[in-house]
C-alpha cells in the first residue's frame, strides 16, 4: 500500500508512506513474515538542483523533512569517518585478540585521525582558496608522510633521534 501526499512544505516535495513486507532472520529454524511502515521524504537540494530521498520509520510529528536531511547528513559523515578509519588506519582487521592491544590500536587510529584533521585545517588555511582537499585523499597523503611529520615535530620540540648508524647497530 502506498499513500502519497503533496503538502506545501518549503523544503520537501514528496511525502509517501509505504508498507513493506519482509522475512525476518531465522529463529529456532523458522523465518516469520513481518510488515513495517516507512515514509519516503523528498527534500530539495538547491545546490544540486535535485532532490534527496530519505526512507525512515521516524514519526512525521516529531521529525520534519529538514530534520531528516540533517540526521542523514550526520549519519553519512559517521559512515565516511568509519570508512576512513578502516581504509587508512587499518581498523578493519586486527592481528590480535588481546583486548588491551585492540584498545591501543583503536586509540592510536583515533588520535591519528584527529591530528590529521587538525593538520588538514592548517593546510587548508595556508593553501590557495581554490584548492580543495577531499578527506580521503588527504588521509592517504597524511599517512604516506606520517614519518616526515613525526620527524619535523620531534625537531620542533627539541628531540633529536640518535644517529642512523647507531640505531641500525642497536636494532640489528
TrEMBL record:
Pfam families: DDE_Tnp_1. It comes from the Archaea. Residues 25-114 form the Transposase IS4-like domain. This is Transposase. It comes from Halorubrum pallidum. The lineage of its organism: Archaea, Methanobacteriati, Methanobacteriota, Stenosarchaea group, Halobacteria.
